[in-house]
Design goal:
The protein is an alpha+beta fold and 200 residues long. It has helices at 12-18, 21-31, 61-65, 113-125, 171-180; strands spanning 2-7, 39-45, 48-55, 76-79, 90-97, 100-103, 106-109, 129-144, 155-168, 193-197.
């Protein structure tokens, strides 16, 4: 597994691009043409935007961004060894998700924090871990469109950023779920679970 970090320019073109998650996914796919499960997350860091992208293969970022000048410098790519997770170990986690429930074959967003946290706990329990502590930060509605100038049919998702600490119970299951992604709307920048060793 690989995790790539793309720093985004503070320019009109770059900010317009990163604001449309459909276009972000479309562009990233050019760097990961053979990737069966591409996950990404858009973050704001020190007043600037950056994108984390997880894949099973190394990206050909030049193919995607060589003629599209929105990046600051060269993306940083590191290898992830999910098999090195420690059974019983504690990890800081971050997940930007679209918490929903399905009723009458329709997906309904969860807007109350209590329901969102319960959704998170269920998802991570199914993923071979248990939530020890968590916080939910409301990011609000994220809107996307294939062609914003012409397309009135926009996709809307409610985004929540979860941060906290989890304990690993089943390394194999958690690794599989991290590769698959957590929750729906993965093509719109949701579902990437990242971990860091817990430090008190």
């Amino acid at each position: 597994m690989y995790l790539a970090l793309y720093e985004i320019m503070n320019s009109k073109v770059a900010l317009g691009w990163v604001a449309n998650r459909y276009r972000v996914h479309q562009r990233l796919r050019m760097a990961y043409r053979d990737e069966p499960r591409l996950l990404f997350r858009i973050e704001e860091h020190d007043g600037n935007f950056r994108i984390l992208a997880q894949s099973t293969c190394q990206p050909d970022w030049q193919d995607a961004f060589g003629n599209f000048d929105v990046l600051v410098g060269t993306p940083a790519v590191k290898e992830l060894r999910l098999g090195n997770l420690m059974p019983g170990g504690y990890y800081h986690f971050r997940l930007v998700a679209n918490p929903v429930v399905t009723r009458n074959r329709k997906r309904l967003g969860l807007f109350k924090e209590e329901a969102q946290v319960e959704w998170l706990k269920r998802q991570l329990e199914r993923s071979g871990s248990v939530v020890m502590q968590s916080q939910a930060r409301q990011l609000g509605l994220m809107r996307s469109a294939k062609n914003p100038a012409k397309d009135e049919n926009r996709q809307t998702h409610y985004a929540v950023e979860f941060n906290g600490v989890l304990q690993v119970l089943n390394v194999k299951l958690l690794s599989e779920r991290m590769i698959e992604g957590i929750g729906p709307a993965k093509a719109y920048g949701f579902g990437l679970l990242t971990l860091a060793r817990f430090t008190a």
